[in-house]
Design goal:
This protein is α/β, with parallel strands linked by helices. It has three domains: 106 residues, NAD(P)-binding Rossmann-like Domain (Rossmann fold), CATH 3.40.50; 203 residues, Mur-like, catalytic domain (UDP-N-acetylmuramoyl-L-alanine:D-glutamate ligase), CATH 3.40.1190; 139 residues, Alpha-Beta Complex (Protein-Tyrosine Phosphatase, Chain A), CATH 3.90.190.20. Strands 8-7-9-6-10-11-12-13-14-15 form a ten-stranded mixed sheet, sandwiched between helices. Helix 6 packs across helix 9, helix 6 crosses helix 10 and helix 9 packs antiparallel against helix 10.
Length: 474
């Protein structure tokens, strides 16, 4: 396995600010169609800079950017760099990207996405960063809904499309900046939160993180980014989280599902058709009652974290209650995506880690009247290899009737580990669970379209390009 990602720059807001001194700049975004890059490009445009960029294929996101006066190119060419002052890149682009190489060779400053995001957020009065291995996008979008409902007009950068905005960002005032803080390659250490949320910590991104100690150290550094006057909202039920913040010197606020020790606790939890209903207590006293319209026990934990962060930011309990009641979800988080020709309901989900898969399939099983089918695309060879036994266990132990696997999505890697979806399927079958493996999406779509019937549920799952199979099944 070979990691082909580019490094983060870690210049910091002060140095990047010096690059923007004087006249407005001409900026080029390499990977402009990315879920976070697009918002950074648009914010830059609003600040008066000339903005253009490259992405591999046209999309709804790139078309929206073009409609806002931002030039987007779909073929690489060094001519795109004519007159460019600064290049901003996502670490996912290849290091031989022509525009990136040209910038390096011609002393044009190159800034990584996370570093530039950190610079942008440094000008906001309050910055709320949501971190954790799972649930970041859901919690970030929950916070967006709470703050908008409360009339706070936040600026938001989310890792998934928020269903109420139709995009992954919201441009508001300079009072609150709510952002998803990605831990991969320590990107979140370029950020400047005044309040940091830590949802959970597990072993993941094993092409970069090599031990739990390294991960906990990184999360501890992220907590410290808030400073002594800042606040960390931490999951008291997660031992890894609590180890990460044990030396934190700011204001530590804890949350926990059914925890008597947490500052904010979810109690009296019930579910109606898979949707959580619960009471939030602050230091043992009732704060508000929550009725969610999204599925699963994991959504209860995410909503509790969002409520705690919002309350500590000055949002009233009634606005928290109303905002979460109005929350409709984020794209690819158990998102209803239509029906097969035989009437099976399709849901689209981003789960790609064993814990995410376990909680998502458990939630789906609660409201499935017929058979539950899981179409899963493993994401990266390193993750599949390192967590192989965990993938086998959660898929085998799930209440899914059958697991249908596509080939592993390579993303930034090449396969030197010898791992494959066929190996996963074989082990799952050894545990007496039905499992199939197909080489392409067309075969998967034909198989599911034939097998899944009315009252059945099909969950399409993974962080790669597996959503393409959805329309094929309809």
């Amino acid at each position: 396995m070979r990691n082909m990602s580019l490094p983060n720059t870690h210049y910091g807001a002060e140095y990047i600010g010096s690059l923007f001194e004087g006249e407005k700049k001409t900026l080029f975004f390499a990977g402009i169609g990315g879920v976070s890059m697009c918002s950074l490009a648009y914010i830059s445009k609003l600040r008066g800079h000339t903005v253009s960029g490259y992405d591999r294929t046209p999309s709804k996101t790139t078309r929206e950017l073009e409609s806002k006066g931002i030039s987007v190119y779909y073929e690489n060419d060094v001519s795109h760099m004519d007159g460019v002052d600064i290049l901003i890149y996502t670490v996912a682009i290849p290091k031989d990207t022509p525009e990136y190489k040209y910038a390096l060779e011609n002393s044009i400053p190159c800034i990584s996405r996370a570093d530039y995001l950190g610079y942008l957020m440094s000008s906001y009065k309050n910055s709320i960063g949501v971190s954790g291995m799972h649930g970041k996008s859901t919690t970030t979008s929950m916070l967006e809904k709470i703050f908008v409902t409360a009339g706070c007009d936040p600026t938001v950068s989310c890792g998934a499309t928020m269903l109420d905005t139709g995009c992954a960002h919201r441009i508001g005032s300079d009072e609150f900046f709510i952002f998803e803080a990605c831990e991969y390659m320590d990107s979140f250490l370029d950020f400047y939160p005044t309040l940091a949320v830590i949802l959970n910590i597990e072993l993941d991104h094993v092409d970069y993180f090599h031990s739990m100690e390294q991960i906990e150290e990184s999360y501890g550094k992220f907590a410290d980014k808030t400073g002594k006057g800042g606040t960390v909202v931490a999951n008291i039920c997660d031992d890894n989280v609590m180890r990460a913040v044990k030396n934190y010197g700011g204001h530590l606020v804890t949350f926990g599902v059914e925890s008597g020790e947490a500052d904010y606790s979810a109690q009296n939890i019930t579910f109606e058709n898979g949707r959580g209903r619960f009471d939030i207590f602050e230091n043992g006293k009732p704060l508000c009652k929550i009725k969610l319209n999204v599925f699963g026990a994991h959504s209860v934990a995410d909503a509790l974290a969002a409520a705690a962060a919002a309350h500590r930011s000055g949002i009233s309990p009634d606005k928290i209650e109303k905002g979460l009641a109005l929350y409709e979800g984020a794209a690819r988080r158990m998102e209803f995506s239509g029906m097969t020709k035989k009437g099976a309901v399709i849901y689209n989900d981003y789960a790609h880690h064993p814990t995410e898969i376990e909680t998502t399939l458990a939630a789906a099983a609660e409201f499935t009247a017929g058979k539950l089918f899981c179409i899963f695309q493993p994401h990266t060879y390193s993750r599949t290899s390192e967590l192989f036994d965990s993938f086998v266990k959660v898929l085998s132990d799930s209440r899914a009737y059958e697991i249908v696997l596509s080939p592993i999505y390579s993303a930034r890697e090449t396969n030197t580990l010898g791992v494959s979806s066929e190996m996963l399927a074989e082990r799952i079958r050894e545990n007496s669970k039905k499992a199939s493996c197909f080489e392409d999406f067309t075969d998967i779509s034909y198989y599911i379209a034939e097998k899944a019937e009315k009252d059945d549920v099909v969950v399409v799952m993974g962080a790669g390009d597996i959503p393409a199979v959805i329309n094929m099944m309809k």
